[in-house]
Design the sequence.
């Protein structure tokens, strides 16, 4: 490969180039967990290391990406497109508290997130959306599950606010956080006693990670029987150790390097260069 291999800064990132969602074993486990919390109306706790796909699975389950495209249109005066099918099926609100979220922000944010989903369900069924954004929280009846991401950010009063909101509504709640959040919540008996399910989100297995990254990389070179391709994939798996976020960054960087150097096949050298550029270890 030529000397431009490490020149990985000359291409601009493309906007909205998110790859298609890939259903993994861990996502299927999360879906089963979320369905159970939703049907039994319990509080569920999902925890796992950073970057392994917790938020991605939760957003896909709730149809959050589709929702974020549809919901701004509901504030206009024109005709609305159909409510995304994923939102209608999941009936799930997705809420992420800010780092310094106040009690007032949480008190307003939780019902508002659920109200919006309920209104979307009403619109899908009756062709009507309630325009009053700050309605009382009891009008969230169509929402069956509330997912709270980054639950580690919630302080004691915030956790108590979540418990109070849960007690006042008939819906399941999932708290997503880092390992150790289950021990922290154990110090709050009133909330902890309402947790019916706990789910540990695990890193991707090597075979799954290989299959996921292979879909976003060039095909093997037939001239070397795919040996370089196999070695490069193995290097990516070793470097990322099942961490989906790292794998996504590394694959993106590898593709940029291959594009810069006008190479059409994956090689271990491209992976080595991408690792050095991303400083993720070797």
Sequence:
């Amino acid at each position: 490969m030529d000397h431009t291999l490490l020149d990985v800064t000359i291409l601009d990132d493309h906007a909205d180039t998110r790859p298609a969602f890939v259903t993994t074993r861990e996502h299927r486990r999360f879906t089963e967990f979320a369905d159970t919390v939703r049907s039994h109306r319990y509080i569920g706790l999902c925890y796992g290391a950073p970057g392994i796909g917790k938020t991605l699975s939760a957003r896909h389950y709730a149809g959050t990406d589709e929702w974020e495209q549809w919901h701004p249109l509901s504030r206009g005066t024109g005709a609305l497109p159909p409510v995304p099918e994923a939102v209608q099926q999941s009936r799930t609100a997705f809420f992420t508290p800010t780092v310094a979220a106040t009690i007032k922000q949480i008190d307003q944010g939780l019902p508002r997130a659920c109200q919006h989903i309920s209104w979307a369900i009403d619109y899908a069924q009756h062709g009507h959306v309630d325009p009053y954004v700050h309605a009382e929280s009891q009008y969230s009846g169509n929402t069956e599950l509330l997912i709270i991401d980054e639950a580690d950010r919630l302080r004691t009063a915030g956790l108590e606010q979540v418990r109070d909101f849960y007690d006042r509504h008939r819906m399941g709640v999932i708290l997503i956080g880092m390992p150790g959040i289950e021990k922290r919540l154990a110090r709050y008996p009133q909330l902890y006693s309402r947790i019916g399910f706990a789910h540990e989100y695990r890193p991707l297995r090597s075979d799954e990670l290989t299959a996921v990254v292979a879909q976003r990389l060039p095909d093997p070179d037939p001239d070397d029987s795919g040996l370089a391709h196999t070695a490069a994939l193995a290097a990516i798996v070793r470097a990322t150790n099942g961490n989906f976020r790292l794998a996504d960054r590394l694959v993106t960087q590898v593709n940029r390097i291959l594009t810069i150097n006008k190479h059409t096949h994956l090689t271990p050298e491209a992976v080595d260069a991408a690792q050095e550029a991303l400083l993720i270890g070797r």
